Every structure is written in C-alpha cells, then in structure tokens.
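Justification of resources, computational component.

The compute hours requested in this renewal are based largely on the per-chain cost of generating structure records like the one below. Each record pairs the submitted sequence with a full structure-token output. That output is archived, and it is also reused by downstream analysis tasks.
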Amino acid sequence: MFPGKTYCFVGSSGVGKSTLINQLIGRETLETKPVSGTGEGRHTTVRRELIRLEGGALVIDNPGMREFGIFGAECGIGSGYSDITAIASSCRYRDCSHTGEPGCAVLEAVHSGEIGQEHFENYLKLREESRFYQMSYAEKRKKDRDFGRYIKSAKKYSKDD
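The structure output for this chain reads:
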C-alpha cells in the first residue's frame, strides 16, 4: 500500500474485511466476531471507518454490501467509447441496439476491423450494466423473480428427461 493513497475494503457481510484490516494494522483495533458454527462469517461492522496505516496509507472499512452499481454512466460511455457512438450515428435505425439490426454501422465496423471485437464487447457489457442499474427496484425484483421461475422450470424440465 502506498502512502497518501486511500483504499476501500468492500464485500459481503462477514467475509473478513475488518479482520484483514486488523492484520494490516498489526493489532486488533476493529471489532470482529468468530465465524458461526456453519463456518460463515458474522456481520459486525455497523459504520464506515477511515483508518490510517503506519506507512501513511488510508483504509476504509465498510459494512457488508450486496452490490455496487453504475448510475448515470451514459455520458461516460459516450465519451469512453466515442468511436462507437460516432459510427452509431450512421446506423439505419435511430434506436439501433448494435446487436443484429440490418444496416448497423457499428456491427459493420466491427466486422471490418475498424472497431476491435473486445472493445465492442466491453461497450455492450458496460451499456447493459448501466441500463440494469437505471431500473427501479421493482423492475429489478421482477427481473430476478422471472429469472428464478425460468431456472425452476429448467430444473423441472431436466428432471422429466
């Protein structure tokens, strides 16, 4: 860890973030609890805390988090993938998803090598992730429930074979 830099420990509740930070500090400063009888960690940290390490680095201990999201990323996607957004203005359809529509200038650029395949795939992933985090909580719950039903029916179908 570098002096003057700030590091942030994040992860699910009970995974050992505070225990790891105590190891970095060299003493038991942050409260921790032993693992449960099932071998799982226990939720202990209830607030964020900034800790200065001996070498001058700073570490932030966070309570457990279930997920992180990207909000308002469209502007960043547009500037980070300006080559794709510039070519997209030449697509046949204004609402082109760049995933298979006829006359998609972006796909043509990928096929010709003007846009790298990996760069394009990263663009699609980031765009999809951004759209997911823009959804409301209710929309996410519905999507999760629908996926759960799909998995349940797939399991049932595979048992019937």
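The longest strand covers residues 6-9. DSSP finds six helices and three strands in the chain.
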